[in-house]
Write the structure tokens for this entry.
Amino acid sequence: MNCRWKSVQLSSDDGSLVAISWDVPENNESAPYIATVVAEDTLVNENDRLAGILTQVSDHFVRAFNITELRKEIRDHLTIEGLKAVEIEKCKKEIVQLREMMYARKSSSVDYPIRKYNSEQYLYNTLDKVNLNRSKIPLYTKYTLSQETIDYLKKPTFDIWQWEPNEMLSLLEHMYHELDIVRELNINPITLRRWLLCVQENYRNNPFHNFRHCFCVTQMMYGMIYACQLEKHLSKPELAILLTSAVCHDLDHPGYNNSYQINAKTELAIRYNDISPLENHHCAVCFKILNKPECNVFANTAESTYREIRKGIISLILATDMAKHSEIMEQFRSTVNDFDINNDKHRTCLKMILIKCCDISNEVRPMEISDPWVDCLLEEFFQQGDREKSEGLPVAPFMDREKVTKSSTQIGFIKYVLIPLFELFSKVFPNVRELLVIPLMDALDRYEKLKKIEEVDANKAHEKNEEESSEKLSPEKDKEKPTESRRASQSTV
């Protein structure tokens, strides 16, 4: 039987061509395919037509199977490449861990590296001397924190003395992650660690103004953020400003305060025209470090966000100058009665008060934590007082080791600075009064009792000295009596 061979094409109702294959989509009455004859051959018999159909079906099957195999090949290739990437990352981590283990074995001390200064460097450091060389600063091990430590880190009672420098670095790193600053500001975790190490390297080995003080202030800031639930009200850039200002607020502190800098006419005082020379220097060092691409934790933020962060950090670090204490207190006091967390001016005042509270918050902590800090501070004060005496400069009464006692220096500071400051803060956040103000009152009571003991001891020492002095004079009087009797006998003769 012979018939004509015709070539047809299918199209949808919108005119689109439909490929004729074994998996062609099924049509329906509402949207039927349209068949159009596009070619017509000469008469062919039925066998030839059947052979042609079988050939076309065979070609379609071959094509279909080839596609399946190709998909399988691609999938297998991607799986293998993915495994390779995982293995590469695993190797990188193992190399880092191995390097850290090698350093730990070589190091004979757990303390962090300290730069050595001669007398001139110690007092007149310039930005050119800021240590930005990361090659000599060892990596630190990232510790896995227990839930107990994570919760404890948010409390003012946190014991900052029991942590080694590497552990403090890990705790600081955790704060940035826990407040979601790392994710929100797209901070590279490696850059964060490198920045923290560089910050640590640029704190000097002073008795008080050292890296542990930096950690202490930052931990208190972290705790107050959660105590006041500020993480729910402040933006992530604002939280970054609070935390970073605390971390950097005393960078490269020389151990001698602004009064000394100004009276001694140091390079810092000259550079900053006697206006907050130390605080301006801390800001400059902070941004000197952040200006290095490998340490810039804010590199991935928008330009406007970076400007906001920079402005905020500068404002907060400058607020730590105690010469501005009364001015900042008055600004915050004016907002207390109608404080509005959504008011930009009120928020700015709050942030400045926060860093001031944190900077001088040691007495808020339990006595066994706060007491060693007083000894450290007095030692740094006495070093300055001794230097001022040797250079013929004015000496503040609280820096003269011959006039100061532990109780006398703390009673006035707690009574006239700390309690008014924290009382004012608690008017906006009443829930922290028991947490922050009551411990200060307990500390004041403790130092007043100590003062009475010191006075009793001083009186006893004074009486003892008078007795010893009188005993030394007694033998001399006894020697004079025989001489007088001999003179009397001679006159009688």
